[in-house]
Amino acid sequence: MKKQLRLSGSGGQGVITAAILLAEAAVAEGKEAAQSQSYGPEARGGASKAEVIISDEIIYHPHVETPDLVLAMTQKAADKYYSDLHKDGLLILDDSLVPETPDFPHVVRLPITKLAVEELGKALFANIVALGALVRITGLVQLDTVKDFVKKRVPPHTVEANMKALQLGWDAAADVH
Predict the structure, then answer these.
(1) Cα–Cα distance measured from residue 113 to residue 95, given in angstroms and rounded to the nearest whole number
(2) Per-residue model confidence (pLDDT) at position 46
(3) What is the DSSP letter of 35?
(4) CB neighbours of 32 closer than 8 A, spacing ≥ 6?
(5) Under a CB-based contact definition with an 8 Å cutoff, are residues 47 and 10 in contact?
(6) Could you tell me the CA-to-CA distances from 140 to 45, 53, 126 in Å, in that order?
(7) pTM strictly above 0.90
């Protein structure tokens, strides 16, 4: 088993944090994981991506070559980062911020940012909503493991909201196969 994931959006959306949490959870469960990131010089507001490889064998090349899954949290990220997605891969789009669906056969649209704003009052939690959805869709790590790492990484006064965000993402992905 080897899965290559690319999480993309704009700087400040938290895709790098989500990728780190996913990789940490995988390592905690005894899997191999490699995580890398890049973002434009604008940082906040510029295109950013974070990549995670999760495998049950040693990872010799730590960068994603052909992603099995691409999450795009903005239209710019969707347009820029899906082109090398594996032909059988999955493109997950934030329905709120990606109005135009790229021409790809396997697309899932989820209301990631909308859920964060409507249910938690802030778009700030969209990355954790997305993480909950990714955990359910990929089945690569257990939700409880991710919860443990989120609790360790986020400010203490936001733990409850982040746990709700994870659950919102998990629930939103219930019908994705």
Answers:
(1) 8
(2) 72
(3) E
(4) 26, 53, 54, 55, 56, 57, 58, 59
(5) yes
(6) 29, 11, 20
(7) yes
* Angle made by CA atoms 78, 81, 84, in degrees to the nearest 5: 125
Q: What is the DSSP letter of 17?
A: H
Amino acid identity for residue 7 in this structure: L
The confidence score (pLDDT) of residue 28 equals 98
Taking phi over 0 as left and psi of -120 to 50 as alpha, with beta for the rest, 45 belongs to: left
Helix, strand, coil share (%) of the chain residues, nearest 5: 40, 20, 35
For the chain, the residue count is: 177
**Cα-flanking dihedrals φ and ψ of residue 41, to 5°?**
-65, -20
Angle between helices 15-28 and 143-153 (to 10 degrees): 120
Cα–Cα distance for residue pair 147/144, rounded to 1 Å = 5
> In 3D, which of 95, 163, 176, 174 has the Cα closest to residue 129?
163
What's the whole-number mean pLDDT along residues 54-58?
A: 96
- The answer to whether the CB of 67 falls within 8 A of the CB of 3 is no
